[in-house]
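Shipment paperwork, digital attachment
Item: protein structure file
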Amino acid sequence: MPSQQLNRQRLKSLVHYVCKKCSDPSKLGAVELHKILWYSDGASYVRLGQPITGETYIKHQYGPFAQDLDGVVAEL
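Attachment content:
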């Protein structure tokens, strides 16, 4: 995916949406959240030609890691 500028508000909204859709958000782990965000941005890129958030994802042992997610979650 080409690099896009991060839209912090969209990332916050996507995190809220994912938590709302979870049957039990307290069981949503960090790894799962990172993977869901990555998948959502990728699916949006395939369908619309641009990601939802513009987040940068880094390859880690357990899957993609959203670079700015920790700071955004701290703001929430």
